[in-house]
From TrEMBL, chain A:
One of its GO terms (biological process) is translation. This is Glutamyl-tRNA(Gln) amidotransferase subunit A. Belongs to the amidase family. GatA subfamily. Gene3D superfamilies: Amidase signature (AS) domain. Heterotrimer of A, B and C subunits. It comes from Insolitispirillum peregrinum. GO terms for molecular function: ATP binding; glutaminyl-tRNA synthase (glutamine-hydrolyzing) activity; transferase activity. GO terms for cellular component: glutamyl-tRNA(Gln) amidotransferase complex. Allows the formation of correctly charged Gln-tRNA(Gln) through the transamidation of misacylated Glu-tRNA(Gln) in organisms which lack glutaminyl-tRNA synthetase. The reaction takes place in the presence of glutamine and ATP through an activated gamma-phospho-Glu-tRNA(Gln). PROSITE patterns: AMIDASES.
UniProtKB/TrEMBL annotation, chain B:
Belongs to the GatC family. One of its GO terms (biological process) is translation. One of its GO terms (molecular function) is transferase activity. Heterotrimer of A, B and C subunits. It comes from the Bacteria. Keywords: ATP-binding, Ligase, Nucleotide-binding, Protein biosynthesis, Transferase. It catalyses: L-glutamyl-tRNA(Gln) + L-glutamine + ATP + H2O = L-glutaminyl-tRNA(Gln) + L-glutamate + ADP + phosphate + H(+); L-aspartyl-tRNA(Asn) + L-glutamine + ATP + H2O = L-asparaginyl-tRNA(Asn) + L-glutamate + ADP + phosphate + 2 H(+). The keyword ATP-binding applies. Allows the formation of correctly charged Asn-tRNA(Asn) or Gln-tRNA(Gln) through the transamidation of misacylated Asp-tRNA(Asn) or Glu-tRNA(Gln) in organisms which lack either or both of asparaginyl-tRNA or glutaminyl-tRNA synthetases. The reaction takes place in the presence of glutamine and ATP through an activated phospho-Asp-tRNA(Asn) or phospho-Glu-tRNA(Gln). This is Aspartyl/glutamyl-tRNA(Asn/Gln) amidotransferase subunit C. Signal peptide: none annotated. Its EC number is 6.3.5.-.
């Protein structure tokens, strides 16, 4: 018999409906696997009792033939989503003991669809990082190791715990959030699938804010079909989020027809900078060939402002973060360090509660928004952002979808990039432009590096055209035939 | 670029207590990042409107009516210090 934890979300869904096994059995398998792989530190909080209670309710609904889209499927929830009565930390010391009295819209939708909550997954503090190493709760580890090398690798970030959990088979799927690549880059590093949908597709209500004009939730799964199913359950209009898109949610799974004949695929020439790793370039070429073989037309396009995207992001995201994180002041929730005055209490609380990278971004944001520098940095970045978005609009006049690498390298070793913030920021060079333009981006595992580590390819689509992105992603997935499994699972 | 005094000022604006010994290294780090983002100066943005909305949508109107409330207990549930349904803070006015 196949191990239950090896089933994809779609296979488990069908198995539950056929009564091949129960939600309780599936959930118990996952809880046992979580025990076995606790050294990965993929979860900050485990909720096995809640999971078993939810599984029992799912079994009752399954027996009645009343199953939701995610019925009985045990998932991990990035610990950035507020979950009613369940500790929510954002990977930060400053939210010590915070148990939200409310549920985020996305986690509520998943619950409504029948999903079972296994726990809250690890992340970079306030989602600020590309390696999971800024988490107050310690870094999550990548379940993959390079061939013949026992060093621990990072799972990527910021949704590193979610990616590690899905790859290690200690969650059937997990939620992520993506501000500059935080779903796609860890998905690539851990050999799983992840999609950041169009800005506005998933409600941001109840997700702890980092950079509000960029933050977007999405699913992290074993394959493209699973991503389509889970995205459908997470999406939809929410009046509580002023930027939520009031659009119908398509049947994303039905979009996976495998037929991409006549589609035009763009390859941005600026994504092949001098010094791009030859194996990443070769993977990208292979991906383009697979799509050609499937009947698509591949054309070169230009996104001329690409090289300015990272610098733009590192003005806009810290600016928004400095404003969003002003609320952590020791008054309403979490940590308080006493002081003799109100200001001293604020300053001591925030110094003790925020880690180095978060403090750095808050101060960077405070600086670029301060009098005398606002125009030079923040306003300038907003203008360059407009040009980056315009590049994509013009490209999409010629093509239906864009193919690019997800990340410039495979997963790197723990501690390797911590010394210099800018080196760390460069991991997001291929994902940040899409975030700035608010477009959907999918990462699909497409091959292994020479060192035996997973590499991802990214598909970028028009606004609210996740269907084409997923359909083309499905074709890449079939052609790649990626069956490798991490060392530890 | 950023000197110690500037960083001390930013840290106060951000209400983060930075130790005197940490000001210099932080000034160097922030200067490095600021120096790097200054490449944006190369881009000609004359006549470009700043991008303030990602999806080009207009903010929605809603009726001005009460939809929630009466939950003082839940609002102060997570407060480190509270008193009679209010948040408690150090004394501000003598």
């Amino acid at each position: 018999m196949t191990t239950l934890t090896d089933l994809t979300l779609a296979q488990a869904r069908d198995g539950l409906r056929n009564k091949d096994f129960t939600a309780r059995e599936l959930t118990e398998s996952y809880i046992a696997a979580m025990d076995k792989h606790r050294d990965l530190n993929a979860y900050i909080t485990e909720t096995p009792e809640l999971a078993l209670a939810q599984a029992a309710e799912s079994d009752a609904r399954l027996a009645k033939g009343d199953a939701g889209a995610m019925e009985g499927l045990p998932i991990g929830m990035k610990d950035l989503f507020c979950t009613e009565g369940v500790l929510t930390t954002a990977g930060s010391h400053i939210l010590d003991g915070f148990k939200p009295p409310y549920e985020s819209t996305v986690s509520a939708r998943l619950k409504q669809a029948g999903a079972v909550l296994l726990g809250k997954t690890n992340l970079d503090e306030f989602a600020m990082g590309s390696s999971n190493e800024t988490s107050y709760y310690g870094a999550s580890k990548n379940p993959w190791k390079a061939t013949g090398d026992d060093r621990d690798l990072v799972p990527g970030g910021s949704s590193g715990g979610s990616a590690a959990a899905v790859a290690a088979r200690i969650a059937i799927a997990a939620t992520g959030t993506d501000t500059g690549g935080s779903i796609r880059q860890p998905a690539a590093y851990c050999g799983i699938t992840g999609i950041k949908p169009t800005y506005g597709r998933c409600s941001r209500w109840g997700i702890i804010a980092y950079a509000s004009s960029l933050d977007q939730a999405g699913p992290m799964t074993r394959d493209v079909r699973d991503a389509a199913i889970m995205l459908g359950a997470m999406s939809g209009y929410d009046p509580k989020d002023s930027t939520s898109a009031n659009l119908p949610v398509p049947d994303f799974e039905a979009a996976l027809t495998g037929n991409i004949k006549g589609l035009r695929i763009g390859l941005p020439k600026e994504y092949r900078p001098e010094g791009l790793s030859p194996e990443i370039a070769a993977l990208w070429d292979r991906g383009a060939q697979w799509l050609k073989d499937a009947g698509a037309e591949v054309v070169e396009i230009s996104l001329p402002h690409t090289k300015y995207a990272l610098a733009t992001y590192y003005v806009i995201a810290p600016a928004e973060c400095s404003s969003n994180l002003a609320r952590y002041d020791g008054v309403r929730f979490g940590l308080r360090v006493e002081g003799s005055s109100l200001d001293e209490m604020y300053m001591k609380t925030r110094a003790a509660g925020f880690g180095t990278e978060v403090q750095r971004r808050i101060m960077m944001g405070t600086y670029v928004l301060s009098a005398g520098y606002y125009d030079a940095y923040y306003l300038k970045a907003q203008k360059v952002r407009a040009l980056i978005a315009q590049d994509f609009r013009q490209a999409f006049e010629q093509v239906d979808v864009i193919l690019a690498p997800t990340a410039p390298t495979p997963a790197f070793g723990m501690g390797e990039n911590m010394a210099d913030p800018i080196t760390m920021y460069l991991n997001d060079v291929f994902t940040v432009p899409t975030s700035l333009a608010g477009l959907p981006g999918l990462s699909v595992p497409a091959g292994l590096s020479a060192t035996g580590l997973p590499l991802g390819l990214q598909l970028i689509g028009k606004p609210f055209d996740e269907e084409t992105v997923l359909r083309v992603g499905g074709v890449i997935e079939d052609a790649a035939g990626f069956t490798a499994k991490p060392t530890l699972a | 670029m950023l000197d110690k005094q500037t960083v001390r000022n930013i840290a106060f604006l951000a209400r983060i207590d930075v130790k005197e010994d940490d000001l210099e290294p932080l000034a160097n780090q922030l200067s490095g990042i600021i120096g790097w983002v200054e490449q944006l100066g190369e881009v000609n943005t004359d006549g470009v409107a700043p991008m303030t909305s990602v999806t080009n949508q207009v903010l929605r109107w809603r009726a001005d009516e009460l939809t929630d409330g009466g939950r003082a207990d839940q609002v102060v549930l997570n407060a480190p210090d509270k008193l009679d349904g209010c948040f408690a803070v150090p004394k501000m006015v003598e």
